[in-house]
Design brief:
The structure holds 2 protein chains of 2 kinds.
Chain A lengths: L11 H27 L2 E3 L6 E3 L3 H8 L1 H38 L1 H12 L6 H12 L5 H8 L10 H29 L3 H9 L4 H12 L1 H18 L1 H7 L11 H11 L3 H31 L1
Antiparallel strand pairs in A: 1-2
Helix pairs in contact in A: 1-13, 2-13, 3-4, 3-7, 3-10, 5-7, 5-11, 7-10, 8-9, 10-13, 12-13
Chain B lengths: L5 H29 L3 H6 L11 H10 L1 E2 L5 E2 L2 H32 L5 H11 L8 H10 L6 H9 L3 H12 L2 H9 L4 H12 L1 H16 L3 H6 L8 H9 L8 H21 L1 H12 L1
Antiparallel strand pairs in B: 1-2
Classes of the chains: A mainly alpha, B mainly alpha.
Chain lengths: ~300, ~280
């Protein structure tokens, strides 16, 4: 899309665009190039010798059982976060939408009380949930023990996974809720009324009309939640489980950080960065293709 | 409202109230813990769910630091709050300024390589800082920007979301306004300042909320570029309090810090709720 009327000037546009270009060149393209370059080098931990190794780093990743395990962990984690987050948020949004039809004030009240976790930093969310589930002092772990469930995320990998999923979902529900609510409110009321006249109850109306019409929002949120689980949850993992017990909750971004900054395997870490970049690009392409289809439809 | 179903209306309220309570529960526990002493929290597990009487003590220790009665040192959160605030403001305002300018250039001028530049900006949308931490760290350290406000904030300004939001908005501004401005003899910068900026205030407010929260909540990046305690943002400082090694964790102080870390962004969201919702929905579409 282009403007019909524009200004004419040869140097002004360059001046205007210079700050942004300077920042993205220095802090984006240079590092991204470095990541690509380093991913084909091998360096010892002291940085004294560097040699070109081609795709060796990638081969090593592919043969590294712990990297593949981290892939699996990330896949399970993001699937759980997306499915739990979306279903909880959709349930809340459907009921809030119903209330909004009758009582705008009450709906606004609930909305205000549901959206603020968006503002909570992931690291803080991780710490708060860690505090509630701490095996010795946590209030929830105590309650679980009272009903006969021995909770210990320091020993049990499944418990640790459940803990980071809970914290991640808690933080993301408000975001999903806002988008679902906006999506629900843009569905024409006439369609719902027509279905009601034909005798469809609320349950039937939801599954036959509302849910299919909501699918663009759902799909969009699915991609966003997967991206969120992949990249924005580092702080939750680092603050609550440190990737443990063992490596049971070490998601990919955590591993990039750990290998690069703790284990000082720069080549391996850079190769992992490149793999992550490819994943984000793939996700973005999927999203844009779908959005375009939606526009044509 | 399609039909009256009292039972369903009742259920709706019930579900939402439950939702609100569950969402609020962790923060309630955090707040209660911050009003007790760390002894009360650790020794009478489970801690009681009614406020204790240690609230001033907890927050004083958190804000100004000092030694607690068990001898563990707590660093002052007051300074961390300041660091977080400055970083978040620089990120939010910096992003808004550079993207207003570049969006103006991309929409209102025609210049060689425009498409290439547009795509270069577009690509940055795809790669969050998390996937290129190692190399970005090296760049920042070779520029001597470790442990500085510039190092904390400038690399995070390098993303294109804001540019795209303003571009979308500028494209909807009627061409007649440019024509009118030109007939009146206004140059491009005059048009930008007197016509475009006033029209964009809502978008700017919306973007400010989103970017302020984004900046405030950064964790991984500060973890890499800061090593001095006086440059820790609060979100990162709170984590350091827990992994204290041999010293016992002072949970009441940690929880007081958690509340302090949540308050500013939560206040921004609640006070600017209208723009926040608009900003979220607009940036993502």
């Amino acid at each position: 899309m282009e403007k019909r009327v524009i200004f004419k000037s040869t140097c002004l546009p360059w001046l205007l665009i210079a700050p942004q270009m300077a920042i993205i060149l220095v802090f984006f393209f240079w590092p991204a190039g470095q990541a690509l370059y380093q991913s084909v080098l091998s360096q010892d931990a002291f940085g004294t010798s560097t040699e070109f190794v081609g795709l060796e780093n990638f081969k090593r990743l592919y043969n590294d059982a712990s990297y593949l395990a981290s892939f699996k962990t990330t896949a399970i984690f993001s699937l759980l976060v997306a499915v739990c987050g979306l279903s909880v948020a959709l349930t809340l949004a459907v009921f809030a939408d119903r209330i909004a039809d009758v009582n705008k004030w009450a709906a606004g009240f609930y909305k205000t009380l549901l959206i603020w976790p968006y503002a909570v930093a992931p690291a803080v969310a991780g710490i708060v949930w860690l505090f509630m589930f701490a095996p010795s002092i946590g209030i929830v772990s105590y309650a679980l023990r009272a009903v006969g469930f021995e909770w210990n995320h320091l020993l049990n990998g499944n418990h640790a996974m459940a803990l980071i999923v809970l914290a991640a979902v808690w933080k993301q529900v408000s975001y999903n809720f806002l988008f679902f609510l906006a999506g629900l409110q843009s569905i024409p009321k006439s369609l719902i009324e027509a279905a009601a006249i034909d005798g469809a109850g609320p349950w039937r109306r939801f599954w036959s009309i509302v849910f299919p019409l909501l699918s663009p929002t759902t799909f969009f949120l699915l991609v966003i939640n997967v991206v969120y689980a992949f990249f924005d949850t580092f702080a939750i993992v680092d603050a609550s489980t440190h990737g443990g017990p063992g490596k049971e909750t070490a998601i990919l971004v955590y591993k990039v950080y750990y290998d690069g900054f703790k284990a000082l395997d720069l080549g391996g870490s850079a190769a992992q960065s490149v793999v992550l970049m490819l994943i984000v690009i793939a996700l973005t392409v999927v999203q844009f293709r779908y959005v375009e289809k939606k526009v044509q439809y | 409202m399609v039909e009256k179903r009292p039972a369903l209306s009742f259920l709706s309220h019930l579900v939402l109230i439950l939702g609100v309570l569950i969402v609020a529960f962790p923060v309630y526990v955090t707040f209660i813990a911050s009003t007790q002493t760390s002894e009360q929290i650790v020794q009478n597990a489970p801690m009681s769910l009614t406020p204790g009487n240690n609230i001033t003590e907890s927050y004083k220790t958190a804000l100004f630091g000092g030694t607690t009665q068990y001898g563990s040192k707590v660093s002052a959160v007051g300074r961390m709050l300041w660091v977080s605030f400055v970083t978040a403001m620089v990120i939010a305002i910096g992003k808004i300024i550079i993207s207003l300018l570049s969006a103006f250039a991309v929409v209102y001028f025609r210049f060689p390589l425009k498409n290439l530049i547009f795509w270069m900006i577009f690509v940055t949308l795809m790669l969050p800082v998390e996937v290129r931490i190692g190399p970005t760290y090296e760049v920042v350290s070779s520029l001597g920007m470790l442990n500085s406000f510039a190092g904390l904030s400038v690399p995070l300004i390098a993303s294109a979301t804001a540019t795209f939001l303003f571009r979308q908005f500028f494209l909807t501004v009627p061409d007649e306004l440019v024509e009118a401005a030109r007939i009146d003899g206004a140059g491009p910068m005059r048009f930008f300042k007197d016509v475009l900026l006033p029209l964009s205030t809502t978008s700017i407010a919306a973007l400010f909320v989103i970017q302020f929260i984004y900046g405030w909540n950064q964790y991984l990046w500060p973890l890499l570029v800061t090593t001095h305690e006086n440059m820790y943002p609060i979100v990162m400082g709170i984590k350091q309090m827990i992994s204290g090694g041999d010293a016992a964790t002072e949970w009441n102080v940690v929880m007081a810090t958690a509340i302090l870390a949540m308050l500013p962004p939560a206040a921004v969201v609640l006070l600017m709720q209208k723009w926040f919702v608009k900003g979220l929905v607009d940036t993502e579409k």
